[in-house]
Records
---
Amino acid sequence: MALPTNKKKKIGSSVVMIGEVVAKQKPEIRFKVEIESQSK
C-alpha cells in the first residue's frame, strides 16, 4: 500500500510545480491549483 501513496505524492508535487509555472502566465489557474492542493 505504501508504494501507490508515494507515487501519488510525487505526481501531486509535479502538478503543483507545473501549476506554479503556469500561474506566472495565468493567475486564475494558480487560484484553482491552490484550492486543489488544500483539499488533499
---
Amino acid sequence: MSNNGKIFLGIVTAAAAGAVIGLLFAPDKGSETRGKMKKQVNDAADEILKAIQKGKITLEDLKGQATTKATELRDKARTKFENFQAHAEEAADSAKKKVNEQLG
C-alpha cells in the first residue's frame, strides 16, 4: 500500500472511531444516531475528496488534521468514560447503601 493509501486509511479509521464514540454517548435513538453519523462521515469524505481534487489541501495536511482530530476524539471519549464511570460508581454505592439499610 502506498503512503497516500495509508494516510487515507488512517483518516477513514479516525472518522470511524469518532462515529463509534458518538454512538456510545449519543442521546438519540440508535437508528437516528447511526443515520446522522453515516451522513456526517459521508459528507466529510466528500469534502476531503473535493479539496484534494481542487488541490486545496495535501495529504500531509490531511494527515496532520486526522492526527489532531483523533487525539481530540480520544481525549473526549476518555473524559466521557471517566465521568460515566464516576457516576456509575456513585450509583452503585448508593444502591449498596440502600440495600444494606433495608437489610438492617
---
Amino acid sequence: MRMRRKTVPQEGNRDKVKHSVDDSLEATVHEIQQLLERRPVITVRVLLDWISSTSRMDIERALPLCGYMFEDGPWKKTLIKFGVDPRAGPEFRHYQTVTFEMNFNPIVEPGEHDWEKSGELAFPQLLKGDDNVPHVFGGRKFVPDDNSWQVCDISDVLLQGIVATSDVRSAATLNDGFFWNGTMAKLEVIMRDKLVCIRDGGTPNDEDYACLLSFPDKYQPPTGRDYLKQGKKRCALKGGYYTLPALSEDKGWTYACVFEKWRTSSKSISSHNCCLLTGEGWTPMNDWTREVCAERWGSVATFDGVKCIQKPGNIISGDDFATACKLKGNLSGFRDWQKGAGYRGTC
C-alpha cells in the first residue's frame, strides 16, 4: 500500500494467499507474529537473522499473513504488524529505514594485495560473524547482503548521537518520516561514507565528520535564491560556492555540489564526489582537469588509478599536480613534487 493511504489493514485475508497454508508455514507465521509483538515494524533482513532455521522463501510466503508493507516512504518494504500505523507518532521514528543505492563491491588498487599467497581472507570486514550481524551497523564492519538498515539497528556511536536528537517532527513526511531534513542528511551522508570506507578496507575516523555535526537538525533556507537546482536535486549556496545538500523542509538533502561546473556530485563524501571537505566547509575543485577525489580521508588515497595525498585543505594528485597547484595559485609547487614513498609534495 502507498503511504498516502489514510487507514492501515487491521488483519490479514487468508483467502487472498496464493499458496496453501501447511504446518510448516503456520509455524513460520506464528514465529513472525511473536517477533512483531516485540518489534511491530521489522525488515525481512532482521527476520532472516532472528529466524535462522527458516528459509527466505518460507519467510516471504508468511509475510502477507503477518502484516502489511508500504511501497514508499520512511518505512518502505518493512513488515508492519496488522493494526499498527507507524505514522501515528514520533515513537515509531526508530523503525524508519535508511537505504543506500551504491556498489558494495570493494575497490582496491590492482596488485596491492595478494591474498591467495598470504592465505588471508580477502575482505574479512564484509563477512558475517558474531561481531558482524547483517542487519546491524556498528561502524567497523558490515555484511553487504542488503542495502537497508533500520535506525534502531544502527549501533555506531556517532550515528546514534545524530538520531538521538529530541528535535523531531510531530507528523511524518514521505521523505524523512519524523526526523527533520538536517538530521537525515547528516545520518545518510556520514553513514554512506563509512560504508564506502569499510568496503574498501579502511577504518572510519569519527573526527573526520566533526565539521558536519554542527549542521542544524532542521534546515530552513533564507529567502532568495540560495540553492542550485540540478534536475530534481538542489544544493545550497554557502560562502560563495554550492556546498552540502540543502532542500526545502519536506525534501531533506544529501548531495554536495561543485559551483564552478554547476553539477551535482554523487550521493557520498567519498569516491566520485567532486568536492573536498575542509574544516571550513566544502572546497570546489574549480579547474582541476581530472575528478581526483579522496576515496576516504587519509594521508594517501587512490581514485581511478591516480594516487592522491591529503594536504591542508586540498587533495593533490600526482598526475595533475601542476593543475592542482593552480587552485592555490602556486604554479611552482609542482617542482617540489616527488613520486615515491609517501607521495610528498607541497602546493
---
Amino acid sequence: MPRIMPANKNEETDFPIPQHCDILRRAAEAGGLLVDAMINTSDGSKDNSSSVPLMVVENGCGSPCIDLRQVSSELAAAAKDADLIVLEGMGRALHTNFNAQFKCEALKLAMVKNQRLAEKLIKGNIYDCVCRYEPAS
C-alpha cells in the first residue's frame, strides 16, 4: 500500500503539489528512507525494492485546513484502504479534524497557537502541543 501525502493544488493558501514533489525529490537525493520510494514512483517499478512508494495527491481543498469530509475523488480513491492517517498542524489536526473519527487509526499532531482554542479543545494554554492517537472506529 502506498504512502499518500495530500497537497493543495494552488499556492495561495499553502505550498502546492509541485513544491511538495520538489522537496521530496531533494530529500531523496540526499539519501535515506525516501530514495527507494521516490525511485519507485517515478519509474513505475516496484520489483527491485521492498520499500513502499510515496505519492503526492491533490487534496481537493483550497486552504491549509484539510476537512477530510470533502476531499478530491483522487485522494478518496488513493486512501480508501488506509490503515493510518497522520494529521499534522493546527489547521489540519485541530481546526477541521480534531473530533473526526476514522475507520483506521489516526494520529493528530499540533502546536496550539491560539489561547481560546487551547482552552476550548484541550483545557490548556497557547503553545501547548497535542499528540492524540485514536484507534480505528
